[in-house]
Structure formats: C-alpha cells, structure tokens
Specification:
Elements lengths: L9 H19 L4 H26 L4 H5 L5 H35 L15 H29 L5 H31 L6 H12 L8 H30 L5 H18 L1 H12 L8 H13 L8 H28 L15
Helix pairs in contact: 4-5, 4-12, 5-6, 6-7, 6-8, 8-9, 8-10, 9-12, 10-11
GO biological process, one term: transmembrane transport
GO cellular component, one term: chloroplast membrane
Protein name: S-adenosylmethionine transporter
C-alpha cells in the first residue's frame, strides 16, 4: 500500500490557511484592535483613579486634595460669613475688658495712670462693626484659601495661607478701621457713645478721621492676620498628619490659642504705633508711622513699643482659642446642614 496523501484543492487550501491565521490571531491577540484601544483607555483611566486615591492618602492633611474638587464659591462664602461673624461677636463680647485695658496702657504717655472704670465702654458700637468685619474676613479668607490651594503645589500650602490671611485682612479693613477708631476713642474716654463718636470725629476731622491710622492699621493687621492663620492652619495640618484623624473642638481651641498668643507678641510694637496714631485726634502729635516710632523711642525709650504686651498676648491667646473653636464648630454645623450627607460630595461642582 502506497504512502497516504492528502489531496486539497486550491480553494480549500486558501480557506485553511485563512482559518489558521485567524486562530493564531485569536491566540496572540484575543481582542481586536478597537477592543485593545478601548481596553488601554480603561486601564489608563483605572490607573489615574488609583493614583489619585494614593495621592489623597499621601497628602492626608492637605486641604486642597479633598476640597478643590468640590469647591463651591457661593457656599464657601456664605458659610465663611456666618462662621466668621459668629466667632467674632463671641470673642469680642467675652474679652472686651481686656482689650480696653490694653488700649489704655498703650495710650498713656509718660507716667500717667490707667483708668479702671467703664471697661465695657463702646462694646455695643464695636459689635456693630465687629460682626460685618469678621464676616467679611472669613468670607473672603475661606474661598481665597481654597482657590490658592488649587493653584499652589503641595509644599507651598503655607504661602497660600499667608496670602489668604492678608487678602482677608485687607478686605475687612474697610470696616475694621472705622470700628477700631470709634472703639479706641471711647475706651480712652473721649466720647460717651458710638453715635456721638462717629458724629464728632466726622465734624472735627472729616470723613477721613474715621480712617485715622489706616496705614499703621494695615501695617499691624495684615502681617497679624497672615501669620496667625498660617500658624493655625499649618499646626492643624501637622497635627492631622500625626493623629491621622480630624481635630476636635478642644484641639482646635488649643492650637488657636497658641497661634494667637505667638502672633500677638510678635506684632505688639505695630499695635502700639497703630493705637497712638488712632487716638491722637486732631492734635496730630505724630506725623506718620516713622515719626511716631521715633517720638516714642526718644521720649519714652524702646520698651514703650512693648506697652500692653501682657494684656495683648492674654487677650489674643484666649481670643484665638475662642475664635477658632467657635469658627470650626460653626463651620462643621453648617456643613452638616448641606443637602448631601457627604461633606465632600454635596451637589454638582461649581467654580
């Protein structure tokens, strides 16, 4: 019997070869090119999601990584206004006598004696200014901070906090300065009531009298706001990294007290200059900031630039504790009232 032969015509041979190619393609490339492209896109998307999740874990304490994607300007503005106004009124009411003592110590020239009567003088009029000023400050600070945290890299969050504090302070100064002028004129016994103070200041010094010492106020308050909020935010970030959890109200209060006391001590000379320029009235004892510093040092010595540092550090330390404690508590309460229970996923994204 002869050898077995396989007879295949040309058409069947071509079909068989085609089937072999198809089988080999299915083995080597189980997905078609469109499918491969789609699979590649899906894998890439999955990798991006995984990297984003890893990034969130890596930068646990970074506010920008969680808040920037859910930033809602109007909501943050509203919550900042409410929280800031509430915190400002509580602090001012509780600590007004200490502030009065500090102001009277700084305003004394030479060997004068401090007056202890009327420590709440001017409180009502001051609250009328503190409420909008605090609301404006936090209302500007919070959305500005969140936007800058989106722009700046993770290692420059301190710059975002410094800048936001200065911008918030600049916006609030339009209300703060007239409020401060009226308050300090009343604390030093120049006027009996806030309406009288406003009327007499405008009558004797013009409208610009309500902004007496404006530049010295900015010289003190812009660095103060920037430094205080930067210290507070950075300490919270460090604490969150160490504790791996959110802070409670007592912890926020302690950090706020430390940030306030430290910043208050650093900026005391600026506060003395601001006080002297604001309470001088139409007499114009000082011709600007530089002349004020030179006159104080020449007539009273350099230690005079630290007058009132004790009450100031005490006042701002306790005030920082109350302010930041109330601020964070109010912000959390407002966040819980949002439509969605998830604080970071409450509605469509808006810029």
């Amino acid at each position: 019997m002869g050898p077995f032969t396989l007879a295949i015509d040309a058409k069947k041979s071509s079909l068989a070869v085609s089937e072999l190619h198809d089988i080999r393609s299915r083995i080597l490339f189980p997905c078609s090119f469109p499918q491969l492209s789609q699979q590649f896109k899906t894998d890439s998307s999955n990798r991006k999601v995984q990297n984003a999740q890893l990034g969130k874990k890596k930068f646990f304490a970074s506010i920008s990584t969680e808040e920037e994607k859910e930033f809602n300007f109007l909501r943050v503005l509203f919550e900042g206004i409410v929280a800031g106004g509430t915190a400002g009124v509580v602090v001012e009411t509780a600590l007004y006598p200490i502030d009065t003592i500090k102001t009277r110590l700084q305003a004394i020239r030479g060997g004068g004696k401090i007056v202890w009567d009327g420590l709440y003088s001017g409180l009502a009029g001051n609250l009328a200014g503190v409420l909008p000023a605090s609301a404006i400050f936090v209302g500007v600070y919070e959305p500005t901070k969140q936007k800058l945290l989106q722009i700046f890299p993770e290692n420059l969050t301190a710059v975002a906090h410094l800048t936001s504090g200065a911008i918030g302070g600049l916006a609030a100064s339009l209300v703060r300065v007239p409020t401060e002028v009226v308050k300090q004129r009343m604390q030093t016994g120049q006027f009996a009531s806030a309406p009288d103070a406003v009327r007499m200041v405008i009558s004797n010094e013009g409208f610009k009298g309500l902004y007496a010492g404006y530049r010295s106020f900015l010289l003190r308050d812009l660095p103060f706001d920037a430094i205080q909020f930067c210290i507070y935010e950075q300490m919270r970030i460090g604490y969150k990294l160490a504790a791996k959890r959110d802070l409670n109200d007592p912890e926020n209060a302690i950090i706020g007290a430390f940030a306030g006391a430290l910043t208050g001590a650093i900026t005391t000379p600026l506060d003395v200059i601001k006080t002297r320029l604001m309470v001088q009235g139409p007499a114009n004892q000082y011709n600007g900031i530089i002349d004020c510093v030179q006159t104080i040092v020449r007539e009273e010595g350099p230690p005079a630039l630290l007058k009132g540092i004790g009450p100031r550090v005490l006042w701002i330390g306790i005030g920082g504790s109350i302010f930041f404690g109330v601020l964070e508590s109010t912000k959390r309460a407002l966040a819980q009232r949002r439509p969605s229970p998830n604080q970071h996923s409450d509605g469509p994204k808006q810029d």
